[in-house]
Amino acid sequence: QVQLQESGPGLVKPSGTLSLTCAVSGASIRSSNWWTWVRQPPGKGLEWIGEVFHSEITNYNPSLKSRLTMSVDKSKNQFSLKLSSVTAADTAVYYCARGGDISRALDSWGQGTLVTVSS
Amino acid sequence: EIVLTQSPEFQSVTPKDKVTITCRASQSIGSNLHWYQQKPDQSPKLVIRYASQSVSGVPSRFSGSGSGTDFTLTIHSLEAEDAATYYCHQSSSLPWTLGPGTKVEIK
Fold first, then answer.
1. Distance, in angstroms, between B16 CA and closest chain A CA?
2. Which of A6, A92, A116, B2 lies at 20 to 30 Å from B41 by C-alpha?
């Protein structure tokens, strides 16, 4: 059974960089899946942030692309998200998820982690 | 960017009712449409992939249909545990996008 677990600071200062890691267990990060980040502002809907393949190929949401970096750490079986120049609008629950190779359907999700941007 | 709209935004229903949620895409997406269920304070859960394909472990009362621009998620004989917000998600054209959600409440 695949399990994903997000980790990282719960509070980030405005203009700072949000950094999160997703540890994967029960599956290899080298498998044919797209490792994905989705966020949800408090009381709002889901927003697709981007995805990364084990070969480091990435696809990003254009609305965040200029501030976004995703990467994979094969040695630790985990993947990461960095979002720079954050504002209060980036306050959200951040989920990591596994997407199908072709379908991109997100079949496994982490529990989510709330990141608040505030001074 | 493909925009997904869902209707209704909110639905209050009685157990054993049939629930129908619609997702419409701003352009044709074939069958590249997936549905998720998100219960309060939980992560989303995939319930239908590729518009109509069932997902292992999901009750058979959940079904999906549609192709092109119009899609439907149906919950046959709703149970109290189905109270949740349901989202559609397209993976036809980058950036992938999600609908705004439909909240299903039990009367």
1. 27
2. B2
Q: For residue range B1-17, what is the model confidence (pLDDT) as tens digits?
A: 999 999 999 999 999 99
B92 closest CA partner among B46, B34, B49, B29: B29
The Cα–Cα gap between A59 and B40 comes to 29
Q: Quickly tell me which residue has 């997100």 as its tokens.
A: A106
Indicate the residue of A45, A51, A111 with minimum beta-carbon distance to B43: A111
Do the chains contact at A46 and B34, CB–CB below 8 Å? no
Asked whether the beta carbons of residue B34 and residue A60 sit closer than 8 angstroms, the reply is: no
Contact A46 B44 (CB under 8 A): yes
Q: How far apart are CA B56 and CA A71, in angstroms?
A: 30
Where chain B has pLDDT below 50, the residues are none
The letter for the amino acid at B9 is E
